[in-house]
Amino acid sequence: MKSKIISIVLAVVILGTLLIKIITLPPKIKIATLVEIHEGATAEDIAKILEEKGVIKRAGWFLYLTKRHNIQGKLQAGIYEFSGRTPLKEVIKKLVYGEVVLVRITIPEGSTIKDIADILEKKELCTKEEFINYAMDNKKLEGMLFPDTYLFPKEISVEAIASTMYKRFKNIFEELYGEPITDTNFKKVKEIVTIASIIEKEAMYDNERRIIAGIIYKRLKKHIPIQSCATVLYALGKPKARLSNSDLKVKSPYNTYTHRGLPPGPICNPGLSSLKAALNPEKTDYLYFVSMGDGKNYFSKTYSEHLAAIKTFLSSSTQSETTPY
Questions:
Q1: How far apart are the C-alpha atoms of 105 and 196, rounded to whole Å?
Q2: N or C: which end of the chain has fewer CB within 10 A?
């Protein structure tokens, strides 16, 4: 009787072990599969994606193991490659250590080279210093790195990153401009991109971009200082909610309060809408504008009208203590 019980127990153990092995046996992936885990995805989201892609057999086992080892919050976003039979523990390890093959990065419109460098460093593609040294100091690419979403391999050079962004800008700008960028027209191109970069920083809404473009061109034609607070912020090299009178006197060729004409180059990397506006400004009677404090601008034709607008909106906004535009 005792031996019979032992035999039954052993049989149950063996069957249980076999069952677990069958359940946890990873599926065989015939061809390499790319799986993207987005930022903010939960362990449940990831388990569902892996199951749907055929990387794991059951989402439940994945969730059980990640919860048991307290690593559900350590699973990293990125694009992973799986092929053959990858054991569940290896799948989890890959996600925890971030063994990605491609990294997705998004560069927002209006980002500066320094902003882009921060994003790249956080994604562990390069250091901030490496990108800044190449893009700003060596190549002076400010304004010509198109803001977009990119997929980069984990092992990629700084040169390749900058080149990809520049080529994207070049293709888009040349299509809008109607001719290729050459040594002959590069100065003109740079001026247009510089204007687009100011528009990008001054306008939150698309319907204002062409109006602001028209004001900038009109001021340049009349030899009136552009007086863009955005250019002063670029000169200061740090964000400020409110500019002081001393800020507006900062010694810099980028200070368009103290220097007539355009700054030496773009102050950010403008998006498509701002590039279009710079190439197609709207003709109006406006010569001034001031922020209303809600992201919108109030446009004025005369200086007295402009002063009245400032009196109305400045007290409730974070604008400069002096007259913007």
A1: 23
A2: N
Return averaged pLDDT per consecutive 10 residues of the chain, 325 residues in all.
51 44 49 87 96 92 94 93 89 93 95 97 95 87 97 93 97 97 96 98 95 97 94 91 87 95 96 98 94 85 90 63 46
Query: What is the domain count for the chain?
Result: 3
For residue 132, the SS3 value is: helix
Asked if residue 295 and residue 229 are part of one domain, the reply reads: yes
Classified as helix, coil or strand, 138 is helix
Token pair in block for residue 99: 């063994």
CA distances for 325 relative to 115, 256, 308, 322, angstroms: 26, 10, 13, 10
Residues 312 and 213 in one domain: yes
Position 53: which residue type?
Answer: K
pTM for the full predicted model: 0.80
Burial class (CB in 10 A: 0-12, 13-18, 19+), 283: exposed
